[in-house]
Amino acid sequence: MSVSYILDSASILSSESQSNIPLVDLSKPDSRHLIVKACEEFGFFKVVNHGVPPEFISEIESQALSFFSLPMSDKEKAGPADPFGYGNKNIGANGDVGSVEYLLLKTDHSFNFHKLLQTPEKFRSALKDYISAVRKMACEILELMADGLKIQQRNALSKLLMDEQSDSVFRLNYYPPCPMLDEASVNGGEGSRIGFGEHTDPQIISVLRSNNTSGLQISTRDGSWISVPPDHTSYFINVGDSLQVMTNGRFRSVRHRVLLANNNWRPRVSMIYFGGPPLSEKIIPLPSLVKGKEESLYEEFTWFEYKSSAYSSRLSDNRLELFQRI
Ligand code: GA4
């Protein structure tokens, strides 16, 4: 192990330990205020006491690891991700690439798991348990947001995720260890590569959990990047573009990315629930957040229209710009 490897790791650790990522304890009575503050400042926060049973999490993680360790020819049977299924390096349909393999699934369990695994029923039932527990947490958070924003109808946001027609997505990402370990050790393990390029999430809310590996970074208001210290026992919440619009710009959808250090020897595995509304839902600011004569900052659009526009964009595009009123 070279000296530069040690220095490199130490500097990553120190930038992570100094992070000021907002922390929300869902069991504490003041959490609604902290959530609102975090969504205004960062569009991002970490959650503890989330209530998702650890055995649901470990079951999905082990199912994911066994899927991603299948021979490539087997995994490819579940692809390409157009948009659902197995994807490798290609993200979306417009030329974005990253050092990542993934499975993108609809949360209504309509995916044909027989294409995917030898024990599809086990995977399907683990997903069902996991997604309903994570959706419950997401709804609790959306209700706390509504409380914190003094919105009378507590479920104004959460009802969109609970709707039978909710267009939510589940994503399993597998970031392989450095592909050129030998080369990396020759040059001291320095440098990094893009796992998942910078972007904002189009939906309302994203709920992310990863194993204990680094990589996730968020962009702050001044455009600088902060590394998020990994914590496999907690969840990380992202405000999505739709929530930015529904709060008339009060909450900001967070730009984030995954950057992999070239000396990473463990795969990063993340699981993300993207809570979206029904396709026909109009994405407009909640009435009480459009004060007096102040108008919506955005043109009116449905989730279907926004999603269609998102899917024809590049990952790093500012997708909301197209809908901003000048
Ligand atoms: C970002 C959030 C979710 O992962 C996702 C992504 C989707 C994809 O991977 O197919 C998109 C991306 C995401 C935004 C713009 C488009 C669509 C890739 C891409 C270039 C599943 C989603 O809903 O939007």
Automatic annotation (TrEMBL):
<feature type="domain" description="Fe2OG dioxygenase">
    <location>
        <begin position="165"/>
        <end position="277"/>
    </location>
</feature>
<dbReference type="GO" id="GO:0045543">
    <property type="term" value="F:gibberellin 2-beta-dioxygenase activity"/>
</dbReference>
<dbReference type="Pfam" id="PF03171">
    <property type="entry name" value="2OG-FeII_Oxy"/>
</dbReference>
<dbReference type="InterPro" id="IPR027443">
    <property type="entry name" value="IPNS-like_sf"/>
</dbReference>
<dbReference type="InterPro" id="IPR005123">
    <property type="entry name" value="Oxoglu/Fe-dep_dioxygenase_dom"/>
</dbReference>
<keyword id="KW-0479">Metal-binding</keyword>
<comment type="function">
    <text>Catalyzes the 2-beta-hydroxylation of several biologically active gibberellins, leading to the homeostatic regulation of their endogenous level. Catabolism of gibberellins (GAs) plays a central role in plant development. Converts GA9/GA20 to GA51/GA29 and GA4/GA1 to GA34/GA8.</text>
</comment>
<dbReference type="InterPro" id="IPR026992">
    <property type="entry name" value="DIOX_N"/>
</dbReference>
<dbReference type="InterPro" id="IPR044861">
    <property type="entry name" value="IPNS-like_FE2OG_OXY"/>
</dbReference>
<dbReference type="GO" id="GO:0046872">
    <property type="term" value="F:metal ion binding"/>
</dbReference>
<comment type="pathway">
    <text>Plant hormone biosynthesis; gibberellin biosynthesis.</text>
</comment>
<keyword id="KW-0408">Iron</keyword>
<dbReference type="InterPro" id="IPR050231">
    <property type="entry name" value="Iron_ascorbate_oxido_reductase"/>
</dbReference>
<dbReference type="Pfam" id="PF14226">
    <property type="entry name" value="DIOX_N"/>
</dbReference>
<keyword id="KW-0223">Dioxygenase</keyword>
<keyword id="KW-0560">Oxidoreductase</keyword>
<protein>
    <recommendedName>
        <fullName>gibberellin 2beta-dioxygenase</fullName>
        <ecNumber>1.14.11.13</ecNumber>
    </recommendedName>
</protein>
<comment type="pathway">
    <text>Hormone biosynthesis.</text>
</comment>
<comment type="similarity">
    <text>Belongs to the iron/ascorbate-dependent oxidoreductase family. GA2OX subfamily.</text>
</comment>
